[in-house]
Amino acid sequence: MNGADFEPRIVGFLCNWCTYSAADTAGVSRMEQPANVDIIRVMCTGRVDPVFVLKAFAEGADGVIVSGCHPPGDCHYNSGNYKTFRRMPLVEALLQQYGIEEERFHWGWISGAEAPKWAQLVRDFTEQVRELGPLNWKRELESKED
Amino acid sequence: MKKISIDPITRLEGHGRIDIFLDEEGDVANAYLVVPELRGFEKFAEGRPVEELPRITPRICGVCPEAHHMASAKATTRSITSRYPRRAKSCESCSTLPFTSLTTPSTFTSSERPTLSWGRMPRLPSVISWAWSTRWV
Amino acid sequence: MPTLIIDGQEVHAEEGQTILEVARENGIEIPTLCYHPLLEPYGACRLCTVEVIRRGRSRLETSCTHPAWDGLEVKTRSPAVIEARKTILELMLSRCPNVPVIQDMARDYGVTEPPFLAVDPDEKCILCGLCVRTCHELVKADVLHFSEVGVERRVGPAFLEKTRQCIGCGACTIMCPTGAIEIVMEKDAIYQEKPLGPTSAIWVPSMQAVPRVPVIDTDACIRFRQDDRTDGEIADACGACQMLCEADAINFDQEDEVIELDIGAIVVATGFEMWDPAQLSQYSYGQSPNIITGMEFERLSNAGGTTGGEILTAEGKIPEKVAIIHCVGSRDHNAHPYCSRICCMYSLKQAHLVRDKTGAEVYEFYMDMRSFGKAYEEFYERVQEENVTFVRGRGAAVEMLADGKLRVTGEDADLGRKVHADVDMVVLSTAIEAPHDADRVASLFGLGRSEDGFFAEAHPKMRPVETNTEGVFLAGTAQGPKDVPDTVGHAGAAASMALALLDKGEVVISPQTAVVDEKLCSACKTCLSLCPYTAISYIEEDNVARVNEALCKGCGTCVAACPAGAITARHFTDRQILAQIEGLFRVPAVEAETETAMAEAEGVSS
Amino acid sequence: MAQNGKLKLGLYWAASCGGCEIAIVELREKILDLDAAADILFWPCAMDFKYKDVEAMPDGHMDVVLFNGAIRTSENEEMAHLLRKKSKVLVAFGSCAHEGCIPGLANLFDRKSIFERVYLTSQSVENPNKYLPQTSYQMPEGEIDIPYFYNTVKTLGQVEDVDYFVPGCPPQAPQIWAVVEAILGGNLPPKGSVVGASPDKTVCDECKHNREEKHVKKFYRPHEIIPDSNRCLFDQGIICAGPATRAGCGALCTSVDMPCRGCYGPAPNVLDQGAALLSAVASVVDADTEEDAARIVAEVVDPIGTFYRFGLPASLLHRTKLE
After folding, report:
1. Of all helices (H) and strands (E), which one includes residue D136?
2. Which CATH superfamily is domain D7-102+152-185 in?
3. CA distance C63 to C44
4. What share of chain C in percent tops pLDDT 70?
5. Is D283 helix (H, G, I), strand (E, B) or coil?
6. pTM of the prediction?
7. Tens digit of each residue's pLDDT (9 = 90 or more) over B72-125
8. Any chain C CB within 8 A of the CB of A43?
9. Which of A49, A85, A94 shows the shortest C-beta gap to D290?
């Protein structure tokens, strides 16, 4: 199921104020982007518990995006994104130890005014994950368990 | 050939089975001790921070965790430094004491068993240093 | 109450007054040089000599020292008095032939030429001791003394040596009747900090200050600095302002105090700071006194300023050519990328002022003329008509030429080539920026900051006055660069929103708040440092963390961090989000059924 | 219950170390009370019963089976199924059965690499013919078989329906006795509950160290710091699993200034103990730039070993990716 046949499933945790509104604008502005990213809106990336990322992979996501407001000053809640940039490097290290390629996990900043950047990220990330092929954690785990 | 399995062997720490093969006469032709258990500490200790080993290796055996704990604690200490405080050394030497206290009751109460020679008991200075260290540590 | 007769007029005196005081109170003029109402009389110059008749006996006395006793008769202009003063002035003029005040006085008494040849024709000191008394009694620095005796007698610091006791307060120069003392500027003098010249230690912040109350610069005031100047030896130095203030308004014991108020709304109007053009070396700011910022130009052209409003170069000359450079630090990726919005208009005004006051040629180096406000464009046109030379293009660099002129180099975008102007004065229209401690204010009030460093409004279009902290509003340049009309409008809006909030008496908050399940909380205190609104606090008596829902904005940071899973984000609970994730990867039942049905149907058909 | 009114009790160890058995012996004189209240029908470590005896029992014969040890081999799993069938109440006893425990760290590797390390490259092994375990082997006298060694360590709950979980490595004696009393008294909580531990709090609740607001500038490894016995270890930059670990042990480790390792498993409302601990640890890093934050969290050298020391098999991802 590699290459062109494979449609990656990507979960995006987006902050309500920046990247979610960028994604909204990208949609409203008819910017071209693949439909592989399923967005889960949170009020702030500071709300993104690492367990959400793990859960997404465990459920079968091929890639995960966490994106919010640019630090230092862009955060609607002042410093929610600070907690994100403290947590996510560790999540990244954890995922790598689990054997999940770092290309499958993206965290970063896209402000409400950067709709084209969001569309670009979706395009690039989808291709990046497509190249890696399916992760399919749950099924792989069951089939290779014994 | 007839096979008798003693499955599992009991009243000791660890998993085991004895497969006994009998020949036509009913005599034991051969017997095999089968150990059906493996957890792989040798492998998964790899990649752990060295100071974690004193808390990983005791799970090799829950009956004698002391021995594993002390072995890895000593190894860890020596891997980090060759100079360490006297008191730490005292703690190390008192480590056999709980083991001894675990076995000594049997040693002295069971008449069938040969008593342990004093040579295998902890040396007196260690006991003193242990007593000293527990009062102050 | 003593009653006495001065020049035939019956006058009443207070107990303890001197004749001079009584005379002056009653409008009778007696000349003095060494007298000052704040100081003890000394009777050195003897010009106040009057004829005092007591019990029929007439004597010449100095009126500044003689008590106004009851029953005295005083004559201030009797022939004996006039003769005595004339002699005094003759001697004085002989000592100091070139002091105008002595010359004037002497002329009044008919003395035009000094009878004796002066030892030193430049001598100005009459040894009246007014300065010594000022330094001793008023300033209490005790720097000035008389030294030597006889003809060698003179005034100066002990052993005539420089002393750190003297801070150059200048009180002696003000007091000296003959102008014999000058303040000499030294390189490290404190005045150097104030580039437009010395001021006293007590001043009104600006001509337009409201309220118009003077402030004391405690870093410069002798009274406040007495300890580090005099090693604490002198108590209550100076205090001249206190002695002189008729309203008794000066209180040296006043200190900053913290006043706690319970308030319902806050308007943050912390304003802006001027960007320091020394950060970009191409403008050579600080290297020549004739390169000044727009703000310094305002001070220069202000009628209350040091030049009385005259536009002069540092050399005191009227400039012939002036260059004004726009966008210094604004619209510049090496400084601030944003437009400071006010500079175009004040630069035009300053160009107009230069033209109006000096007639100098003015060059305006501008990138775009942003005259966007009401009547702004009309003003721009007017300044154009005043023959100001507008050069479209950034003024790129200022360099000092050997002849003292300043060369401004820039690109004329209209001509498409490099141009330069050699001028006498350069005015840099510097950017305005967020105050350097805006981050502290932001964390104090829980405000966000936009990329430019100014405080972030709740929404750039729809809610430009509110912030994300309920009840905190922004006014003026705290939110971003604004000119005066915009600031007034913004501030008015902030005030009315604050009033509306107070009038309503209640606040509406978002329901997306965090809540602690206190049963599950073990008070690990992980969450406490995370809340940007300090909405979580540790409750000692219950040994749990608790969220103040009035402060909580519902960002959910604490929820994600709580290692015990004790905090829930209302409307964004873990269960809700995890269910969303699960939902993404579960084939919906209906769809699955349809798929099975279709597969079956296919199986049947084939 | 048996006719004599005594509880029929079974105990079994799967992939375990025997520490849970010792923990029961730790009941000391109370073990006599246990003996008085219960007939023990199966306990390989202490009494001589064979698997055949268990197989011979009618289904649901034993009232309670305390099952410790993880599911490492096919034999472990078969025993789990067997004991489920023969018992009324199956209790996952101890950290291994509850969440995988230390042996669960083997989920960082697979069967092949473990076999290679243990049987081929280990310095204390001489195996010139490079024999590796095989599930069956033909000896001259006949066939000998051993169980199949799984790639992945599983918890009891992952292979069988479990009634109750008793956490801890090992479960503490007072907690065990509380469970025994609850069983004898018949007042057990709803099925699936964790018993023998605090129903709601975490280790911090029992820990005596003084906690403050946390701002961690550096993470210390034990040999880099002498901790202040009065201050919270986590506050001092020592990663302590206490905040993310269910209470019940009495904060044994922290009482001697060793950070909690998390053997009592996640707090009641937490899905994944490691993720919860990771989030808490990273959140309090005192860094205001991305570079500082990345530098400080990089001091956590072994994220899985740190955050999932006892619970990797029970975590959301269970194990590392298999090739």
Report:
1. strand D136-139
2. NADH:ubiquinone oxidoreductase-like, 20kDa subunit (3.40.50.700)
3. 11
4. 92
5. helix
6. 0.64
7. 888 888 888 777 777 777 767 665 555 555 554 444 444 443 333 333 333 334
8. yes
9. A85
